[in-house]
Amino acid sequence: MKLRPVDKIWPNDFNECMQMSAIIGLIPIAYYILMTKVLPELLDYGTPGYILLQLLGMFLFSNLMSNFFMCMLADTSIDPWIMSLQLERENKKPINWHECDKCDIWAPPRSHHCKICHVCVLKRDHHCTFIGSCIGHANYRYFFFFIIYSVISSLIAFIANLVFIHALRGGSHKFVLLPFANAVYDIQNLNEDGKLNLLEIFKSLIPGNFEIIFAILFGLNTLLLFLSMYFLYRFLPILIRGATYYELKKNIFTYDRGLSLNFQMILGTRMKWTWISAFISSPLPHDGIQWLTEDKDADDAKQSEMKNCVS
């Protein structure tokens, strides 16, 4: 896999930098708090359930971050030298290629110029601000699994946090903001004259540092859950129809080759194993330049059938 140049990895846009920094910084913090603070309150240490959730958390966290970094590092841009070799091999302008005035190259079908990255991208789908690069031919697999593991991880974390908050009331951390409505009427806040001690009530309602951090992370967890579910809903039809986001909007399904082959075009020839780790090799069955279509497949099938009949 070709990697992006070092000076191109981190985006120049401030909003993209903030989004990428949030993912790189906050997800590990949320994982640490979930594993070391929340999980011990839910299950006893050393029990089968505790060990299972620890292993599941490690698996989800490692895949979430590794797919994120692989998606960020993979170079999806067009190599002008390879394009020039392809043109020389064809000895003419190939069919369906187009000229990019900004890059001053001839680009193959399904490739588009990105105004943010300032390059042409093979099989460009969209520019992802959370990752700081375009999603295309070389990194769609990692983007797909990043979304999948975001949905699973955030959903499990959301459920565990809800139990931690509403069932355990913060456990041994004693979240003071949860029962604040009853604190006004708490007998412990009455002085000897039967009057409310407002100072004690005020002190009892001041959240601790962990409670503030947990509240922020729980809010981000909820946001990530809804965002990842939205992205999955948005891009699942693209995967099923073998299209890009641009092609889906234009109702162009020329490259739809059936569900299995469409997923293979994204996940590679060893797609059954790619869910285990982002580092498992799974070569793509195409180079991002020459594309098979429905019509081409039908013609090939007819020619093969005719050969079989003749023989």
Report on the architecture of this protein.
Strand 5 and strand 6 form a beta hairpin. It is elongated, with a radius of gyration of 26 Å. It has a domain of 201 residues. The chain contains eleven helices and six strands. Helix 2 crosses helix 5, helix 3 packs antiparallel against helix 5 and helix 5 packs antiparallel against helix 8. Strands 1-2 form a two-stranded antiparallel ribbon. The protein is mainly alpha-helical.
In short:
The protein has 311 residues and is mainly alpha-helical. Helix content is 56%, strand content 6%.
Individual helix count: 11
Assembly annotation: single chain
Which class best fits the helix and strand makeup?
Answer: mainly alpha
Overall outline = elongated
Query: Low-confidence spans: pLDDT under 50, at least 5 residues?
Result: 295-311
What's the SSE pattern?
A: HHHHEEEEEEHHHHHHH
N-to-C CA distance: 42 Å
- Helix fraction, binned, reads 55-70%
Please outline the helices and strands:
Layout: H1 6-9, H2 14-42, H3 48-73, H4 80-90, E1 98-100, E2 105-107, E3 112-114, E4 119-121, E5 126-128, E6 133-135, H5 140-167, H6 180-183, H7 198-204, H8 209-241, H9 245-249, H10 259-267, H11 294-310
Antiparallel strand pairs: 1-2, 3-4, 5-6
Please name the defining characteristics of this protein.
two-stranded antiparallel ribbon; two-stranded antiparallel sheet; 11 helices; 56% helix
